[in-house]
Amino acid sequence: MERRVVITGCSAITPIGYSKEDILKSLENGISGVSSIRDDELLVEQLNTRVFGTVDESVDYDFPRKYRKTMGPVAMSACRVVDDVIKQSGLDKALLSSGRTGVAFGSSHGSISVLKKVFQACFNAHATEMLSLSAADYLKSMVHTTAVNITRMFEITGRVICSPSACTTSSQAIGFGYELIKFGVQDAMICGGAEEYDTTTVAVFDNLLACSTNYNDTPERTPRPFDADRDGLVVGEGAGAVMLEELESARKRGASILGEVIGFSTNNNGGNLIMPDPAGVAKVLEMGLDSARIDADQVEFISAHATATRIGDVVEARAIHSIYGDRPWVTGLKSYIGHTIGACGVIETILTLYMMERGFIVKTLNLDHVDDRCSMVRHTPQLMETKIDCAAVQNFAFGGINTSLLLKRFS
């Protein structure tokens, strides 16, 4: 028998804030989290872009040293938000260690700042640099560092899934966690993703000519999803986590329920590894509705992937229109925080949950003149107070991976 899956905790570290109230304040007031890129060795001088979505460095990572010694910055932020959602959900140690609670969490690279340290030591092959490497450096930099550091710190013994699929990392994590609970494999899943600050990630997109460069002197004016003057994405950092639980188990514990996951879909375009595919994107949206067993006209709000790339936004807008028509409101939340890569799906899910709870939809920041090729969907011209009963969060990644998550207000 299929089981219902609810959300009993969520937390996000984002460029527009860490606390729920700070994030909501930024959304309500149209405040951007994009700023000038920080200096980082010589690589910055080789970049065309000079903007980045940077989190507040005052976030407290006051974990005991026995846990911190195997964590790079990406695992630190992951464990910070997971600690928050465990406390918020009220899940006790017995449930965490019962084997019925699992983790689905990822990042694009592990700790890339630690990886750079390892590579520099190996390539230079100087004895002093080799000696500076810690025995824990691999544990910090391995691709599943977030997931396993979470299991270690919170003594979680259930399933572990690491989904390093770039921009769909955390949306797949939520989806896979949802399926494990829905079909009875686990009773609870801690799901999410994280990315740390590093200019190496920026350089990858910069070399692909995918980054915004026209607003280096005015960072708050970019990215510009769906706008006629958009010129590329802005890389960001951050972390997010949600606690998913089987409904009846959550009710028995008296847990506060923040929302319900009612559907998930993921597919692959089966072709070009970089360019988005209209048919593949439209198909995953259709599959998401089928998974949720709802009609398209029941979805009132869509959190679009909307990276502000020239082609990607057009493909997404057309795919949305082909499945949903022009009924749901559409917002590109990356306009506030930049593209947080492996964390974007979970952060955008959390921002959507916040809006569903408070009863408003924010506009896409910097959307001053809608590109005619993106005008077939319903853009929000300003912050709008309205009830959202059902929302879709969609993300797409290099490699042709697409995801769609369907969320419902719980009553």
What does it look like?
The mean pLDDT is 94. An eleven-stranded mixed sheet has the order 5-4-6-7-1-8-15-14-9-10-12, sandwiched between helices. Strands 2-3 form a two-stranded antiparallel ribbon. It is α/β, with parallel strands linked by helices and 411 residues long. The two termini are 22 Å apart. It contains 15 helices and 15 strands. It has one domain (5-408): Peroxisomal Thiolase, Chain A, domain 1 (3-Layer(aba) Sandwich). It has helices at 20-28, 65-68, 73-89, 93-96, 112-124, 127-131, 137-141, 145-154, 169-182, 199-207, 247-253, 278-292, 310-324, 334-337, 344-358, and strands at 5-13, 34-36, 51-53, 101-106, 160-161, 188-195, 238-246, 259-268, 301-303, 329-331, 360-361, 378-379, 384-385, 390-397, 401-408. It is globular, with a radius of gyration of 20 Å.
